[in-house]
Inverse folding.
């Protein structure tokens, strides 16, 4: 039912029942929540939503839909680059698939549910999980990942901690640490530790303020430069103790404070130490003529 280009989807907005309007907007190769919460969106959740959208198919068409149609339970609008109007799908009630009237001689229907839907004037029934995907609470669309960049997107890193400042720059298959060339292995391990860090809990500014999380002098700061993928600053703070435990962290562009598991801070520190201790690679010998 959706005939647009998945990669051309620029904006997604939906409402479920009388709930708030949820808006996702593309920024580069990532989506961000704009409403009712401003934050980076969870990459996996967005991919699921896009898959449900482009995979929306009609199980059967409704020949004589009621007029006027019943009010939808959820409405999704997708703005697609190059399209003059937003794609709009209305989703109504669901019922067990095996309760739908079978055609003479048709095989028994597979288990599942059918959802009544409408695109423009076309009414149909679908097995899509789109309605269930849209029903997730807005807070669950926030990304638990500390970074929005992936390792292969990072071209340079500036690390600042108690030991000083260290500049790392990608150099072919290896990396430059200042003027010295070192192996990519310890740098890749560090970047994986930072970019794949995932929060156990996401704190609103009010929650973080009440706990004293994400304030004061940082333990370490990582300035990640990703070329076309953009840049990002990651800041780690002293771990919390008491009833709430974890390592508070912030990422530029987010008001959310991410509470990382306690072992993550040690892992990242160990990775930084390994990069600092890495021996320079021997200079390449000139090719013989």
């Amino acid at each position: 039912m959706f005939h647009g280009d998945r990669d051309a989807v620029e904006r997604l907005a939906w409402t479920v029942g009388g709930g708030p309007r949820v808006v996702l907007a593309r920024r580069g190769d990532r989506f961000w929540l704009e409403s009712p919460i401003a934050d980076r969106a969870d990459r996996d959740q967005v991919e699921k939503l896009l898959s449900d959208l482009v995979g929306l198919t009609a199980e059967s068409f409704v020949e004589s839909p009621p007029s006027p149609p019943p009010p939808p339970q959820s409405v999704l609008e997708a703005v697609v680059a190059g399209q003059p109007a937003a794609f709009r799908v209305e989703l109504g009630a669901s019922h067990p698939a095996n309760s739908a009237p079978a055609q003479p001689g048709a095989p028994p229907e597979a288990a599942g549910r059918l959802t009544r839907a409408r695109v423009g004037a076309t009414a149909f029934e679908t097995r899509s999980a789109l309605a269930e995907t849209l029903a997730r609470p807005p807070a669950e669309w926030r990304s638990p990942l500390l970074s929005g960049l992936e390792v292969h997107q990072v071209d340079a890193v500036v690390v600042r901690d108690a030991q000083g400042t260290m500049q790392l720059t990608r150099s072919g298959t290896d990396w430059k640490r200042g003027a010295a060339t070192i192996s990519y292995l310890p740098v890749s391990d560090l970047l994986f530790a930072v970019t794949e860090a995932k929060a156990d809990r996401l704190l609103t500014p009010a929650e973080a303020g009440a706990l004293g999380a994400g304030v004061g002098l940082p333990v370490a700061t990582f300035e990640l430069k990703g070329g076309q993928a953009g840049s990002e600053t990651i800041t780690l703070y002293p771990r919390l103790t008491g009833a709430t435990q974890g390592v508070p962290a912030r990422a530029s562009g987010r008001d959310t404070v991410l509470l990382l598991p306690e072992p993550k801070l040690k892992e990242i520190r160990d990775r930084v130490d390994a990069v600092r201790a890495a021996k320079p690679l021997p200079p390449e010998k000139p090719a013989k003529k």
User: Anything to note?
Assistant: The chain has five helices and 18 strands. The CA atoms of residues 187 and 275 lie 6 Å apart. Helices lie at 43-54, 130-134, 184-195, 205-211, 262-277.
